[in-house]
Amino acid sequence: MRLGDKLIQLRRERGYSQEQLANMLDISRQSVSKWEADQSIPEISELIMISDIFNVSVDSLLREDIEILPLDKRHEKLEAANNSNIVSDNYSSRAYGYGFYEYKSKIKVFGIPLVHVKTGYGIQVAKGIIAIGNISIGVISMGGISIGGLCLGGIGLGLLAFAGLALGGIAIGGGAIGILAFGGMAIGMYSIGGVALASEIAVGGLANGKTAIGSLAKGENLLKVADIVREGQVKDFVLQHHPNIWRPLLKIMAFIAEMSALT
Questions:
Q1: How far is 140 from 154, CA to CA, in rounded Å?
Q2: I need a labelling partner for 261 at 20 to 30 A (CA). Which of 96, 113, 246, 255 fits?
Q3: How far apart are CA 31 and CA 133, in angstroms?
Q4: Whole-angstrom distance, CA of residue 129 vs CA of residue 193
Q5: How far apart are CA 177 and CA 54, in angstroms?
Q6: Rounded to 5 degrees, what are φ and ψ at 2?
């Protein structure tokens, strides 16, 4: 059986229209139509997503000598394999198939879905004002890799990023790079962290910047934590060298440095 015929069978078993399947794959309906007519074939990433959606192996989709079982027969085979602890060659890699999930709101802003959620095995990209996925792109994005305005994820790139590795205007994470960076390793114009490297002010255990405040401090203007003996000392020191600093940022830096010194 050819790939196109298999796609038609799988789609009809689940009751999906060509447009519904296209939406799940984030492609055009015309692409699905061409696949089913054997005028073109899906890319590798699309084949992986198709195999997840229909809970079949990529191998069984591509090989004409392997027939796709009817849906009820596939369930029987999977159940038998699970009960006997036998791993089927065709289905073992599809354990994530039932984990595929996508939601795309009908409400759109400038043609972009208000909410787009796309999760599951493989590369799942969510694009929306609010985006949640393995890879997410949005004004508010959450995912393994998140890109946008407010980002939460393993790797975050945005105006405000909270992530294991955060890159942004304001970056907060294990590793943070930004204009204002908070992290175990913080690099930016203003940095606060275990290791803080900054072009202007650095506050941390190891601080290196034009103005550096920390246990080990290197820079033009130095204030070591051991030398802080009173409340307000850090604030006075920073204002002496940076009189135009944003006051809320000054309070945060002074609080962290003085807490480290006075506790």
A1: 15
A2: 246
A3: 23
A4: 31
A5: 41
A6: -75, 160
Q: How far is CA 220 from CA 18, 114, 198, 217, 242, in A?
A: 65, 49, 12, 10, 12
CA distances from 13 to 68, 74, 85, 144, 180 (A): 11, 12, 27, 32, 53
List the domains of the chain with CATH numbers.
3-99 (1.10.260.40), 101-147 (no CATH), 157-262 (no CATH)
Task: Give Cα 185 to chain centroid, integer Å.
Answer: 20
pLDDT tier at 90 (50, 70, 90 boundaries)? very low
DSSP secondary structure string for all residues of 89-144: TTTGGGTTGGG-EEEE-S-EETTEESEEEEESSS--EEEEEEEEEEEEEEEEEEEE
d(CA 210, CA 189): 10
* Of 151, 148, 104, the residue nearest 124 (C-alpha): 104
What three-state secondary structure class fits 80? helix
Q: Does residue 144 come out as left (phi exceeding 0), alpha (psi in the -120 to 50 range) or beta?
A: alpha
Instruction: For residue 76, name the pLDDT band (cuts at 50, 70, 90).
Output: low
pTM equals 0.60
In this structure, what token pair is assigned to residue 173? 């994470």
Rounded CA gap, 201 and 209, in Å? 6
**What does the pLDDT look like over 3-58, one tens digit per residue?**
888 899 888 888 889 999 998 888 999 999 999 998 998 888 888 888 888 888 88
